[in-house]
Amino acid sequence: MKQACALFLLLALVACGDDQETTTSPSLAAPPTFQGQYAGSYVVTGCTDTNPGFCQSLGLDAANITLPFALAVNQSQTAVTGTITLGATTLISLSSTSAMVSGTFLGVAQTSGHLTGTATMDRPVPFCATAPVSPSLPGGGGFMICGTTVALTQWDTTIAGNNLSGSFTLAFTATSPIASATASASLLQVSRQ
Q1: Which mean pLDDT values do the consecutive 10-residue runs of the chain (193 residues) have?
Q2: CA separation, residue 15 to residues 3, 43, 117, 124, 129 (Å)
Q3: Ramachandran quadrant class, 78 (left: phi over 0; alpha: psi -120 to 50; beta: rest)
Q4: Which has the closest alpha carbon to 53: 145, 123, 188?
Q5: pTM (global) more than 0.90
């Protein structure tokens, strides 16, 4: 009987194990799905330039310029890639023979619910813009600004249902004369189709 009690007590101790708690690491939230085709518009809310007249020559000197917007992206886990197409101002489209500027979008879907990214826009050739004639510009304006490249930077958007909202920056750089401009923009009524 003593042996049976000792065996029972030993089995009870083994069954209880040690007193160390087993913890599991919390699971990370999955990023939202941004994959799809979006259409809507964007609004340019402001533009600053290093050379007076560059924003004007691009047609971006007035606030609240609304232009068409399209985005087609695929998503693999957090990597979001695709094509972005932005409507161009009248001056840009006259200079480039296209009313739209497209580029390759590279983004990351964050677990916070944000999509951050950049895009290198394809440059129409030749791409020159003419500064407006104005006494406030060097030489009275009317000069050509050529070799302009466009990059989309500081993309930060969120999605609610099928609606995409957020902002981005367009960076323009010219080689002749050397100039740069930065335009701030926000998405306006952009939805997944």
Answers
A1: 46 49 61 96 92 79 84 97 86 56 93 94 66 74 76 94 95 83 94 96
A2: 18, 67, 54, 75, 81
A3: alpha
A4: 145
A5: no
